[in-house]
Design a protein that fits this description.
The protein is an alpha/beta fold. It folds into two domains: 161 residues, Bordetella uptake gene, domain 1 (D-Maltodextrin-Binding Protein, domain 2, 3-Layer(aba) Sandwich), CATH 3.40.190; 116 residues, Periplasmic binding protein-like II (D-Maltodextrin-Binding Protein, domain 2, 3-Layer(aba) Sandwich), CATH 3.40.190. Helices cover 48% and strands 19% of the residues. Strands 1, 2, 3, 4, 5, 6, 7, 8, 9 and 10 form a ten-stranded mixed β-sheet that branches. Helix 7 links the parallel strand 5 and strand 6. The longest helix is centred in the first third of the chain and has 31 residues.
């Protein structure tokens, strides 16, 4: 190597060192902030692709990857009302790298619905954070001779046995409509479908009289006059249907029913890892594109910590278990 080549190599090495030092410092800082996360993180969704949980998982994965410094991948493990996917997390290594994302109301219902559970929800799974809440909308077929909540309540009482489409036996849509039927004195006839989408079709075609379903999916049918909106769960009226009152305004039960999407990990996961995951999720929901998408879905960010989540789960397990038993609901 001649003198000119040697000088050139020396200058190149100096330049690379100058570039590498800040990068190494940044990497060191990132590793310190995310200590304990050192390989691929899996989000297990116990439902088929395309549902709310799957959409949420794929929405948050890129920013969770950025924040935690590890690749986040999605695995769909559907079946047994969510028990297959949840069991995989319950039996995973307790290192915070395997997450469960699902409608956690299912985890509050299943212990009563299924006589033999492959895992203990309270012991084998640890709450990390709720992610979103989205309300339910009660809607009727357009041909039903009702105009509003008052006329619907009167009609249901005078015509017991109205057919209500639900998203599956033991789903929270099933439990909510069963409780409402009892409260209104109508005792609805439950007609289960394989998910909310076919249940909605049943109401639009007149095969079923009414539905209690996720507001996001149901609003378009109401706006197109294929259904009539009667009442909505949650704390607030819907922006898209401001004339539709809330269950709470009407004094109806199940006022906080709806889609409660949350994230859990294996039950023995160390507390610092759970807290780091919770902090990461709190950061994720503030990302403008994600916040905007939540609003489009009619969903509210809900990132209360692990303890609030655990209290909700315990309270809901008692409430939903009572409804399952009172209505003699059996798993298919």
């Amino acid at each position: 190597m001649n003198r000119r080549d040697l000088l050139r190599a020396s200058l190149a090495g100096t330049a690379l060192s100058g570039l590498a030092a800040p990068a190494l410092r940044a990497q060191g800082t990132n590793q310190g902030a995310n200590q304990g996360f050192d390989h691929t993180i899996r989000i297990i969704v116990p439902n088929a692709p395309g549902g709310t949980s799957d959409i949420l998982a794929r929405l948050i994965a890129p920013d969770l990857t950025r924040i935690l410094g590890q690749t986040v991948v999605i695995e769909n493990r559907a079946g047994a009302a969510g028990n297959i996917g949840a069991d995989a997390v319950a039996k995973s290594t307790p290192d915070g790298h395997t997450l469960l994302l699902m409608d956690v109301s299912t985890l509050a219902i299943n212990p009563t619905l299924f006589p033999r559970m492959p895992f203990d929800v309270q012991k084998d799974l640890a709450p990390v954070s709720m992610l979103i809440y989205a309300p339910y909308l009660l809607a009727t077929k357009s041909a039903l001779p009702v105009r509003d909540a008052a006329s619907f309540a009167a009609y249901a009482k005078a015509n017991p046995g109205l057919n209500v489409a639900n998203a599956g036996v033991g789903s929270l849509t099933h439990l909510t409509s069963a409780e409402l039927g009892t409260f209104l004195g109508g005792h609805f006839t439950q007609v289960p479908y394989r998910g909310g989408a076919p249940a909605l079709v049943a109401v639009t075609t007149g095969e079923a009289d009414l539905i209690v379903n996720g507001a996001t999916a149901t609003i378009p049918f109401v706006k197109n006059n294929q259904m009539r909106g009667i009442a909505v769960s949650g704390e607030h009226r819907l922006e898209g249907l401001p004339e539709v009152p809330t269950f709470k305004e009407l004094g109806w039960p199940m006022a906080d029913s709806g889609t409660w999407q949350g994230i859990m990990v294996q039950g023995n996961t160390p507390k610092p890892l759970v807290e780091r995951l919770h902090a990461a999720l709190r950061e994720v929901v503030t990302v403008p594109t994600i916040a905007a998408r939540f609003k489009e879905l009619g969903a509210e960010p809900r990132t209360d910590g692990p303890e609030a989540f655990r209290e909700w789960l315990g309270r809901s397990t008692t409430t939903f278990g009572r409804i399952v038993q009172a209505n003699n609901i059996k798993a298919e």
